[in-house]
Amino acid sequence: MASELDGLPVIATRREEAEGFLQGLVSKSLGWARKYSLFTYPFVTACCGMEYMTMASARYDSDRFGAAMPRFSPRQADLLMVVGTVNCKQAPILQRIYEQMADPKWVMAFGVCASSGGFYDNYATVQGIDRIIPVDVYVPGCPPRPEQVLDGIMLLQKKIQNQSHKLIDRKPLPVIAGGPGR
Amino acid sequence: MSEAKGVGGIDPRATPGSAGAGERPPMGTVSRAGDGELYAPMPSKHMVINLGPSHPAMHGVTRAVVELNGEIIEEMKLDIGFLHRGFEKSCENVTWGQVFPYTDRLNYVSSIMNNVGFALAVEKLAKLEIPERARYLRVITSEIHRICDHLTLVGAMAMELGAMTVFLYGIEARDLLWDRLAELCGARLTSNYARIGGVARDMPEGWQEKTLKVLDRVVAIREEIGQLLNRNRIFIDRCLNTGKVSREDALELGFTGPCLRASGEPYDIRKAAPYLVYDRLDFDIPVGSNGDNFDRYLMRMEEMRQSDKIIRQCFEQMAPGEIIVQDFRYALPPKPLVYGTIEGVMAHFKLVMEGIKVPAGEVYSYTEAANGELGFYVVSDGGGRPYKLGLRAPGWPMLAALPVMTKGSLLSDLIPTFDSINMIGGEVEQ
Q: Which positions bind [4Fe-4S] cluster (chain A)?
């Protein structure tokens, strides 16, 4: 039910306006910095790993995006690339890796197995990693061509630029229900 | 090795005492810092560490629980199953033709070899004779994929020992071959090419010339990789005399393929039980003498050379002709027949909806894949789907032998050993 207060204009003080403007500037510049300094943790399990190798090599060279420099420690990475099939035995490990990564962090599902389980519609395979961790970009294909992955990286960069970033984020950290160690 | 290549060559300009100067380290002993008389032991404690599964050197799907005394491996246990995707069970739920995509993803570095292995198993059961040209095309694509597989192994092995350049060169060469495969069958990696009774399609116009040019380029890159690694002090120090398996042990453990031949047993299914057209081709089987990681690396380099030779011979020998059997109980009829005749429509419909009817019976068929013997045990009840399908994965015995191979060696020797056996998750875990 609409109240009569609803129609009233929202009053913002000049101080709040200024703060919002500054926060916007900070957010934009942080977003710009973060989108060009993605450090990848490649969680490589299966066939897609071969395409990942190609994508990281000379011909496609994912490094030229200022992105996707592989880091083999989750604590040094902010982009988790889940490359290949994740099965039920692997799922808790993936979840642990995601939790160990420092905030802010993003996840890319590389290939149909990571995105949806692919054609492995059976008892062993997790039907998409978004059942256990949040995913920002899905790259289809079995396996995807390197161009598709580069497209995914650019999409993610756009997404990162448009997110709101803060210098100090006082929000409580998101908690994954039922994760290991809880 | 069959040719005197590699560390054997003596270079007068090489640093005295290095492998290039012709002075090999003494064979048969694991050289350690502790062996000399100046050995000053540091107090070390017993500890158990956990390597993987999410560790770059364990390829993401293997967990090794290593019991260490200082840096020496005392005991190791392997934990696998992190890529179990239910291969055998999935195959029993689909028609014979639909099994091919699953076989592609077994050893995903050389998918056509798995395709061919499965197609040969079904053809053995159905007693199908496939056309000449299809045989040659199967051999050509298999050998291209063998080169891809070995390039990937050499690249990855070198990278994990610190040589990034080799990896970049290897991937570049593999990409060139993948481009040709993509022209042939539409996919870069999971190239679905073999069909029951033949192959999916013929070579496109000008493909042969292009492939020959690419092979020349791959030869150049391979030689360059050889120059970077064969006399590389770091590479030799980490590979020579590490992960040794004797000929007897290798046979006992069930090794096949390059790992068995590196230990000195000249067994290759392409020679021992020739299939397709391998009996008409002239190629050598390289054999190692030491059975260590360096021999396994040299084996891969030499096999690439032989595969190259095989492909060139096939191009010379093959003649135009049919590429798939003209029996519509097994192969899809050509599209004009499907659209124009009722028999064509019916054959197409039956094949797509029910699958081919393979006569009841059981068969074991084996081929020489990039890692060794790839065996399919197929049981048919006469229906459109496999009743049971069993796989003998070539990588499995080598992986199972890893605790034996690394016992008593340094923890750092585990990395080249694990690399040189070429463990591929897809086929080991099934």
A: 47-48, 113, 142
Binding residue ranges of A for [4Fe-4S] cluster: 47-48, 113, 142
**How many structural domains does chain B have?**
1
Give me the pLDDT at residue A5, please: 67
Q: Of B275, B235, B291, B305, which is closest to residue B404 (Cα–Cα)?
A: B291
Q: B152, A53: Cβ pair inside 8 Å?
A: yes
Find where tokens 């996707």 sit.
A68
Token look-up 């890529």 returns: B83
Render pLDDT for B328-387 as a digit per residue (tens, 0 to 9).
888 989 889 999 999 999 999 998 888 899 999 999 999 999 999 999 999 999 888 999
Which of B189, B231, B218 shows the shortest CA–CA distance to B13? B231
Position B26 scores a pLDDT of 45
Q: List residues of chain A with CB under 8 Å from any CB of chain B.
A: 43-47, 49-51, 53-54, 57-59, 72, 84-85, 87, 89-90, 93-94, 97, 119-120, 122-125, 142-143, 145
Q: Give the domain range for residue B304.
A: 47-127+130-324+359-429
Cβ pair B53:A93 closer than 8 A: yes
User: Is B232 inside any structural domain?
Assistant: yes
Q: Delineate the domains of chain A, giving CATH numbers in brackets.
A: 38-162 (3.40.50.12280)
Contact B390, B377 (CB under 8 A): yes
> Is some CB atom of chain A closer than 8 A to the CB atom of B53?
yes
Q: What is the CATH number of the domain that holds B105?
A: 1.10.645.10
Tell me, yes or no, whether B352 lies in a domain.
no
Residue B230 domain-assigned (yes or no): yes
Q: Chain B interface, mutation test: which of A40, A41, A44, A45, most B Cβ atoms within 10 Å?
A: A45
Nearest to B289 by CA among B278, B303, B299, B279: B299
- DSSP letter string over B47-101? EEEEE-SS-GGGTTT-EEEEEEETTEEEEEEEE--TT---HHHHHHTS-TGGGHH
Does the beta-carbon distance from A47 to B426 stay under 8 Å? yes
Contacts of B327 (CB under 8 A, 6+ apart): B128, B197
How much is the ipTM here? 0.84
For residue B197, give Cα distances in angstroms to B18, B201, B368, B379: 54, 12, 19, 18
Q: Tell me whether strands B63-69 and B372-380 are parallel, antiparallel or unpaired.
A: unpaired
Confirm whether B217 is domain-assigned: yes
pTM: 0.86
Burial per residue of B230-239, b for 16 or more beta-carbon CB atoms within 10 angstroms, e otherwise: bbbeebbebb
pLDDT (tens digit per residue) in B123-134: 999 999 999 999
Q: Any idea which of B27-31, B97-101, B161-165 has the lowest mean pLDDT?
A: B27-31
